[in-house]
Amino acid sequence: MAGRVENINKDILRQCRKQIGLSLPAVAKKVAKIAVIEQGDQKPTFKQLDTLAELYKVPRWVFISEHLPEKYQLDKAIPAFRQFIDSNADVFSEHKVRSLIARVDRFRELILELREDMDEPVTDFHPLALKRNVASDFAAQQVRDWLDITEESFKFSKWKEMLEEKNIFVFMTSKYKGWSHVDKALFRGLAIYHQKLPIIIINDSDAKKAQSFTLFHELGHLLRKESAIDDWGAYHQRVERWCDELSGNVLMPAAQFQTAIHNINIDDLDEIKSIAGNFQVSAYACLVRLRQLRLIDQDDYLHFEAQLKAEYRKLQKKLKESAGGPARNRPQEVLNQYGHIYANALFQAYRNKEFGLHKLCQAFDLKRVPYVLEIGRQL
Fold first, then answer.
1. Closest to 167 in 3D by CA, of 197, 194, 142
2. Which of 141, 243, 273, 325 could pair with 220 as two cysteines, CB 3.0-4.6 Å apart?
3. Average per-residue pLDDT in the chain?
């Protein structure tokens, strides 16, 4: 008979399951006796405990703790997320997203620990001092001043780099199947506020130009020092609208935008796409901006939105029918995913002999040493 683990704290076991968003029947598919284990009527085996640790995203020693350590406590509410307007998802996969958040938060903890060990602690995040009811256009100008932006428009990678320089950990999910892949129909982005090294998670399955809009929407939540909204009613809708307006104002300032559309036919979707290209945003973001500034009415907005949805569905069908895309560049892909804050902390610790090459590979979830060394050369 397999050895059993003594002194399991059944309350901790239950708390870990609930905070990751799993029901008893769901866990029972992996650990059949979870109900009696939680009741304390049966002690788990080491194998069962390892399975539960993987499901709940905590080390197994947590289950014998007197209290759930603070670093392993997830927010009670799901952080604010950006849903696709044309989402076909029937159910929001709470467990998938909570698991993703838990793992990314562990990366954040590793960064903080490594930097502390190297006597280079991460400084506190100092967002703009915004009044609670500040107008989104005024806040956006403050954001552009904070980032030292005048009239330029940038690609997503540059915007991301600017926020990383402000000590924001920006993590990208993977386009490919794996632990960090999340269906783009579920969310575009997440904001997780911490006083030190707050997190933005961006869904990399989304188009790059759409990611810029999501990035600044999620920054809006961090500027408000929030990562989750308990009231999903009118307050939530107001906040989401404010964050949308903030993003639109940062990426397409009203004066510049109105100058750009002067003398063009905004009744033509191709013209709208052209303006979107000038500001390096998605056509949908440009459409939203036109509506925000009341340069088109609701009927025109809905007409163009329907066209964009039809084009999107056609593109997705074409991609599914295609033989495949370009070859993957794993080093660049991983560096884009984890970001420079994480990669620099790991490589600095490696060069300081804090840990070896094997652990470095594990930290990037890579098996091939040449891939990891290439990441180092790209930093």
1. 197
2. 243
3. 86
Reference 194, options 262, 109, 135; nearest CA is: 109
- Spell out the SS3 assignment of 91-135: CCCHHHHHHHHHHHHHHHHHHHHHHHHCCCCCCCCCCCCCCCCCC
The string over 351-361, giving b where at least 16 C-beta atoms fall within 10 Å of a residue's C-beta and e elsewhere, is eeebeeeeebb
- What is the torsional sign of CA 128, 129, 135, 138? negative
Can you tell me which residue has the tokens 């939203």? 288
- Cα–Cα distance, 90 to 352 (Å, whole number): 49
Look at the block and give the residue holding tokens 């954001």.
143
SS3 at position 205: coil
Supply angle C-alpha 91, 77, 167, rounded to 5.
110
Q: Which domains does the chain have, with CATH numbers?
A: 10-72 (1.10.260), 75-251 (no CATH), 260-320 (no CATH), 330-378 (no CATH)
Total-model pTM:
0.81
pLDDT digits (tens, 9 = 90+) for 126-158: 888 888 789 999 999 999 999 998 777 899 999
Least confident of 89-93, 117-121, 238-242, 355-359: 89-93
Q: Could you tell me if 210 and 284 are in contact, meaning their C-beta atoms sit under 8 angstroms apart?
A: yes
The pLDDT value recorded for residue 85 is: 35
Element (H, E) at 242: helix 234-251
Q: Specify the residue for token string 């500027």.
A: 223
CA distances from 374 to 326, 327, 362, 366 (A): 19, 17, 15, 12
| List of long-range contacts for 113-120, beta carbons under 8 Å, 24+ apart | 114/345, 114/346, 114/348, 114/349, 114/354, 115/345, 117/349, 117/354, 118/348, 118/349, 118/352, 118/354, 120/348
Compute the Cα dihedral for 296, 152, 285, 79 and give only its sign.
Answer: negative
Q: Which residues pair with 192 in a beta bridge?
A: 199
Q: How far apart are CA 39 and CA 329, in angstroms?
A: 49
